[in-house]
Amino acid sequence: MSRAFVKEQEDAGYGELPDRLISEHANLVTKEGLQQIEAEVRRLTAEHAAAQESEDRERIAATARDLRYWSARLASAEVVTPPADGRHVHFGSTVTIERPGGRRQTFRIVGEDEAEPAKGTISYVAPLARALSGKEVGDVVRFGEDEIEVLEVK
Predict the structure, then answer these.
(1) Interval 65-94: pLDDT, tens
(2) CA distance 124 to 91
């Protein structure tokens, strides 16, 4: 087998990776969310430069793809300042709800890239966030098979 053929096979797997999908929804972010995106762009820029310096083609391709994604998210970010009205659920609200059986949950409604349900944040496009949008303390919302009561809005 010729060395040229082997080299061609080695190069084939490390070209440009397909772009990460970007949401069709507006890129609404909190002030903290914008800071997270900016930090990710800085981190990836440094990581990409290091990958180029070390000629790590696989890492170059991966960091280039991620850098394209986060740069696009930074360019399209719309910082939303929560309205002064703390009575109604809206983007940026911290909401406490009660589910059937008395189980309580508290979460903050944030942008898609900020959302980490395990850490108490959900995306504003999540079905639960949409169901609660505009509601206030005492409102009961039908969500799937359940009825959920809004206990607190901050």
Answers:
(1) 999 999 999 999 999 998 777 899 999 999
(2) 6
DSSP bridge partners of 149: 98, 140
> How many other CB atoms sit within 10 Å of the CB of residue 123?
21
Residue 14 has what pLDDT?
56
Contact call for residues 25 and 75 (beta carbons, < 8 A):
no
pLDDT digits (tens, 9 = 90+) for 104-131: 999 999 999 999 999 999 999 999 999 9
- pLDDT one-digit tens code per residue, 11-22: 445 568 999 999
CB 113 within 8 A of CB 119: no
- Encode the chain in three state secondary structure: CCHHHHHHHHHHCCCCCCCCCCCCCCCEECHHHHHHHHHHHHHHHHHHHHHHHCCCHHHHHHHHHHHHHHHHHHHHCEECCCCCCCCECCCCCEEEEECHHHCEEEEEEECCCCCEHHHCEEECCCHHHHHHCCCECCCEEEECCEEEEEEEEC
